[in-house]
Amino acid sequence: MHTKPVLAASIMLAIVTLPAFAQDTARDLKSAAPMAAADRASLDKILTGWPERPRLGAQQMISKYGAPQEATAERLIWHRTGPFKRITVTKSEDHHDFPLPHMDYMEHTIDYHVPAAKADELTKFDGSATFDKTRGELSARCDLEGHNILTLNIAHDVLTGKKDADAARKAFGENVADDMAGKYPAYTAALQFEPPTPAADADKPSMPGAPKRAMKEASEVKVTGEGDTAASEGKAQAKAGAATGSDAEVLSLILAVDTNEVVAAMEAGKKKLPQPVAEYAKMLHTEHGKNAADTMKLGLKIDVTPMDTEKTNALRKKGAGELAMIAPLEGEEFAAKYVDAMVKGHTEVLAMIDGELMKSAENEALKKHLTETREHVAMHLEEGKKLQAGMKK
What we know:
Number of helices: 15
Structural class: alpha+beta
Number of strands: 8
Number of domains: 2
Radius of gyration: 28 Å
Distance between the termini: 76 Å
Strand order of the largest sheet: 1-2-3-4-6-5
Largest sheet: 6 strands, antiparallel
Helix content: 55-70%
Mean pLDDT: 85
Shape: elongated
Strand content: 5-15%
Low-confidence stretches: 1-19, 21-31, 217-241
């Protein structure tokens, strides 16, 4: 009999204590995408085991944005909704006492390049404002969407030099006070700037002789205008075309082979394997690792920078895909599949060296290195075949 009054009181309490959410409640309920009964039931089952506050935050985001694209027992994630790259609500809560004691469990992420020179100032402003330079992301984690928006707005002020950390902290507290007083400050209502897209920063190679990318991924191309974009893409494609079949690509393909074998050997090293297979994997790790280092040194010596092309990328993906197929296995089952993969892989590498790389290489020192690499690969293949034969008896 008292269910409805209690529920109404709870809603009123939420509206009074959470003004950053309450101001948009009616609009949010209208904008939420309808959910199928199965989706709703699945989410309800997940959220039943969550603490009260994260459960409330999850329900708020569901009401506003509809069902998340990802849902696990530990987190809900919405992708590319509103102005945000990602919204995450987690079951776990973190204590956070700025500007008032509360729990963090809701995170809003946008595309944003954080200048290195401003990173310390951002951290001084708010430890729950974090960034990922490589992915070009800026995130705010709090207990309310409005306060995450506030964090992102003030972080933008810090990163653009409008405020230092002390002024930012003061402004944050003032905005929260106004929000709690029902004044609904603009900084809690919406982003006051347009997040740049894209903002990723792949950085630069630092190891001597390391390869460079012949063509940037689409996410790395900075869009400043249609003409500029077309020009940038044209230059990148021309660069990629020039690298194809060159000594730069040959060096890169050798490195891709070595890297694939090292990663596979590292995975084997995590397993409990028969001693002969474990020793074989260790040998491959050591020798392919050395060959990779020698390849980069050679590039420096002959003044040719290895250039990762589409062919190089395809080879790396192939290695990753094949390893992913056997990685879940353990013991003798993994050992057998690993040896089979090494026999197959080294056979293919020999064919690539003989049929492609030796024909493409122009530098004499590179040709000599290919010959030496081939000798090692052939030896690895023979050892693998011996193991393979012994395991099938």
